[in-house]
Amino acid sequence: MTTQEAAVRTSDSLRNVRYEIRGKLARRAQEIARKGYEVISLNIGNPALFGFRTPETMRLAMIENFPDSEGYCHQKGIFPAREAVVMQQQGRGVTGVSAEEVFIGNGVSELIDLSLRALLNDGDEVLVPSPDYPLWTAAVNLNRGRAVHYPCRPENGFIPDPEEVAKLVTARTRAIVIVNPNNPTGAVYPRAVLEALARIAERNGLVVMSDEIYDQVLYDGAEFVPMATLVHDAVCVTMSGLSKVYRACGYRVGWAVVSGKLRAAQGFLEAMELLASLRLCSNVPGQWAVQTALGGVQSIRELCVPGGRLYESRRAIVEAAAADPRLQLVAPQGALYAFVGVDRQQLPDFDDQAFALDLLEQKHVLVAPGVSFNVPYRDRFRVTNLPDAATLRTVFGRMSELLSDYAARPRALGAGATVVEAGSRFRN
Hints:
The chain is an alpha/beta fold.
């Protein structure tokens, strides 16, 4: 191979990084759509794709302040946005926080990377839930750390067992990640479990990183408990934003609030500010929507009660899963997803990636296979409840048809042959 033909070498840091939610399946879905087929995409929680609109007051706030959005702002974000976050935290019972401990970022995604970069050295360990939102595992790996997954088992309603978590702590453990309400499972953690996790962090000097982007997306009276109200003798980083509750994914506005043992956090805060300065600032126009969003009517609530769009879509998923004896589901109590399982006793050769590919190719429905979320099993897949109830009933009807095909030819999902076949189809 000549010098001109030599492939560009990529970073070794990407070796253990994956984000299959937007990976090969999503690219294949685009190819199918370009051929004129309608693909129902349930792989990503993108409200705008399904007709949800950002509240008008937020759009107006951006428009009215657009003339003040043309220059860089402070590296931590504009003061009105940060102060609005402080007021929200105080209203939830979080004490000792000022605008100086609030960082605005280009979505929570950027802040996950920024905070882990500020914290980790080579080989440091971070406790991450399994299943997880895969960006957490990826960001730990990219920032020289090692993700140690603590199980959130289906048989326990996807709620972690604090005793199991405690056994995973070593001298290298620096932080614990909590995603509540949970993506991908929809679990909402009980107060007692969160209190136990807080005590583990305090006993071991761990930084708590609490991903609360779905904090108001709750069903059937589920209670959301802010982690920062429970962590007192450790550092807590609470992350949330406009994307989900306020249906404003494209605004790319998230925030991180550092609370708890702030004296111990001074070096960490300085590191975060340094990194925030290096990226100059986050998107300015979207920040003007924060104060209006947090201080205005919380329209998400009417969507999550009986008769509301999200509630009824969730109900359609729960009922459809219950109607098919091959499907298993822990009814989601929050967030925008359901983590659906398949009964291995009835379909012993079921493979989540092969199923997702067949569902896409044959039924034009795109889901995220469970393995995307760093789990050791291959019998689950994630769907979002953002489509309307009628669409979801149609989707589960197509799933049942495919599962019936599998049952009629049980060896069609032989793990080895099917995965190889799936790979060859991606390549062609």
